Amino acid sequence: MNDQPERPNRPALSLHVPEPEARPGDEADFSHLDIPPAGSVRRPDPHAPARETHDLVFTLVRVLDEEGKAVGPWDPKLDPETLRRILRDMMLVRVYDDRMYRAQRQGKTSFYMKSTGEEAVAVAATHALDRDDMTFPTYRQQGILIARDYPLVQMMCQVYSNRGDPIKGRQLPIMYASKDHGFFTISGNLATQYPQAVGWAMASAISGDSRIASAYIGDGSTAEGDFHAACTFAAVYRAPVILNIVNNQWAISSFSGIAGAELTTFAARAVGYGIAGLRVDGNDALAVYAATRWAADRTRANLGPTLIELFTYRVEGHSTSDDPSVYRPQDAASKWPLGDPIRRLKQHLLALGEWDEERQAALETELGETVRAAQKQAEKQGTLVTSTIDFPQDVRTMFEDVFAEMPWHLKEQQAQMVAELAAKRK
Amino acid sequence: MTVMNMIQALNSAHDVMMERDKRVVALGEDVGYFGGVFRVTEGLQRKYGASRAFDTPISENGIVAAAIGMAAYGLRPVAEIQFADYIYPAFDQLVSEAARVRYRTASEWSLPLTIRSPYGGGIFGGQTHSQSPEALFAHVAGLKTVIPSNPYDAKGLLIAAIEDDDPVLFFEPKRIYNGPFDGFFDRPVTPWAKHPQAEVPDGHYTVPIGKAAVVREGGDLTILAYGTMVHVVLATVAAEGVDAEVIDLRTILPVDIETIEASVRKTGRCVVVHEATRTGGFGAELSALVQERCFYHLEAPVQRATGFDTPYPHSLEWAYFPGPVRIGTAIRKALED
Questions:
Q1: Is B295 exposed, middle or buried (0-12, 13-18, 19+ CB in 10 A)?
Q2: CATH code of domain A50-252+260-319+329-379
Q3: In Å, how far are A315, B119, B259, B297 from B229, measured between CA atoms?
Q4: Which ipTM score applies to this complex?
């Protein structure tokens, strides 16, 4: 570098490093966003060739307008019962998140991640799938479990790593797993689940099954090689899979520009793979539902995958280990122009005359009580122990499930550990 | 001299080198504006500009590959992999490329790059934020692997790594970023300020790669350790009341065989300690080296105190972690006969 030849006729190159519109101290500014009015985006037939979706990757499918009316061709025309169920589930996710966040702050567990503002991308999408379709989530889709009636107490036991934790305290809080609920085990390593979902979907196709898979990834993690593997395999084999990208615009402290959002959209990745793509208002539960249903109908007809970008905003920090006020404006979340998914769906139900403030207040009270009662139940089975060896679990379980059968060296180590703990307790 | 914790010492190493050498650049996830999730690169972007300290996309494979390309150009990139547990997508670039470019070009190219990564447990990070993968890289021909155990060494070794003309993997024991954890999880942790190795020169200095430190002299037995475990070993030795010679390897590869050999020849007994899983761990290599070279001086079999051969469990962390009881047991066994 220091001995670079003189090239006087060539301009000096410079490196472009993306920077967000605003930093702490600035006012949050979303004026650069191009948000089309609700109802303005056309809806192709789900059986149309993939290329007929390729203009939709640069716009935004929206259903709910400013007054809470459902407008345009993407209106899924859900019955009020389903609408109320989606509202309830989203509200429950938020109450649950708040409760568990507080439990972490009280030292009852090591870590927590909220999904505030992103409830619709998990809950509404799950209601648009069949109950036995498979999901491969990231760590911010607790809404899938809630929408599928996973027992709250058991969820909390996982967060507490306690005796009731179905995965025996082995994983960080929020890294749930449940075969019965079509919820694949969450990995702390990013993007790994995306090509796995494609493999599951290929297996369903190989087996002549009718179930489809739905995968989630964050905007930041689309940079991992696994994202490319997933899209390529899904395209090549026309795998029955929905590939969701939750674009919440922040990967810890890195804004989506660091993942490539300055020049194009994430949905536009679909074009290069030749698969269907949609870009959707992720804070609009009806748009999320409609797009998911569109992609599900399409892939159930053996027409291959759809890449769906769900455009939303990470309202809270990345996790309890993160403080977003040091890298983005304090008021950013409150100024996010696509609003709050819960408030928007509530407004819609009110506009339909299918909901009122009394029922809203009653539901809030009921959910608060449900979560409080569940927490009490869960805590009876212990909370995470960090400064003693009085573990809630049987310690011998540490060596189970490494293999189906325990080899000699693990048996030896297990005995060693039991002796150690006995020595420590003396 | 300034009293620094390990994070500040590592930050200072970056600062000194970026100031001295325009070829040094820092990159990684959250490394730029934010300064890294553990704040090791804090302030570097403000001081040296975004084209010398910057955020990367979430692609460990891309980070290491780009660092290789930058090193091939002639820069000296210092790339952060946010947690050692995240390094596996970069395995091909490290094993097949970074480790071999010098060899396959007969030294026409060398790759002066440093890959930093926090490793190890003790923070309730679960199985994807707690691993110690050093043995995987020590097994690869062509990668140097360095693990400091205190602020002074951290800064001196990182500067040496950046100045090294070959790829260096620099694993940082995150459990002791802020203070020397002694393995007694139920006792309060002392901050680095109380530790002599927290006195760190402000300017440039190096701690040589490939040179171990005898952190405690003794005659009863030799204990080999690195990273967090150095402190756990010292506390255990004190608790057990044995006159152990404790060696902080500081560099895993190339390991300082002279220091190890001289000590074991003197004591005739040896315990190897690491946090990583036992089977195929670096302790196996150390144990083999000691018996090959010191067999006729050994009074007892070489003992290992290590992590168990399971994924790092979230809730049972203190049953997994090789603490004073496990190390004490190994010491007593090595002292039998």
A1: exposed
A2: 3.40.50.970
A3: 40, 12, 18, 26
A4: 0.96
Task: Give the DSSP per-residue string, B57-69.
Answer: -S-HHHHHHHHHH
Structure confidence at residue A392 (pLDDT)? 84
- Asked if B61 has any chain A CB less than 8 Å from its own CB, the reply is yes
DSSP at A186: P
pTM: 0.97
Q: Are strands B76-80 and B24-28 parallel, antiparallel or unpaired?
A: parallel
Q: Is B126 on the interface with A (CB under 8 A)?
A: yes
Q: Which of B32, B129, B319 sits opposite A417 (nearest CB)?
A: B319
Would the CB atoms of A169 and B62 count as touching at under 8 Å? no
State which residues of chain A have pLDDT below 50.
Answer: none
Mean of pLDDT values over B111-129: 96
pLDDT in tens, B245-270: 999 999 999 999 999 999 999 999 99
Contacts of B316 in chain A (CB under 8 A): 169, 391, 393, 395, 397-398
Chain A within 8 Å of B208 (Cβ-Cβ)? no
Neighbours of A70 (CB within 10 A): 22
User: What pLDDT score was predicted for residue A5?
Assistant: 66
Interface test with B, best of A322, A389, A393 (most B CBs within 10 A): A389
Q: Where are the domains of chain A?
A: 50-252+260-319+329-379, 395-425
The answer to whether B269 touches B337, Cβ cutoff 8 Å, is no
Q: Taken in order A252, A253, A258, A264, is the CA torsion positive or negative?
A: positive
Tokens coding A302: 């053996």
User: For residue B254, is the peptide bond before it cis, meaning its omega torsion is within 30 degrees of 0?
Assistant: yes
Q: Do A23 and B317 touch (CB under 8 A)?
A: no
What is the tens place of the pLDDT at every residue in A188-232?
999 999 999 999 999 999 999 999 999 999 999 999 999 999 999
Do residues A39 and A343 touch, judged by C-beta distance below 8 A? no
Please report, as a single letter, which amino acid is at residue B60: E
Task: Report which residue type is found at B314.
Answer: H
Q: Which residues of B are catalytic?
A: 129
Question: Edge-to-edge strand order for the sheet containing B221-225?
Answer: B213-216, B244-248, B221-225, B270-277, B303-307
Do B55 and A258 make contact, defined as CB atoms within 8 angstroms? Answer: yes
Q: Which residue of B has its CA nearest to A219?
A: B58
- Our CA-based measurement puts residue A282 at a distance from the nearest CA of chain B, in whole angstroms, of 22
Residue A59 Cα, gap to closest chain B Cα (Å): 24
Can you spell out the DSSP letters for A360-394?
HHHHHHHHHHHHHHHHHHHHTT-----SSS--SS-
Distance in angstroms (rounded) separating the CA atoms of residues B154 and B8: 10
Q: Please provide the average confidence, as pLDDT, over all residues in chain B.
A: 97
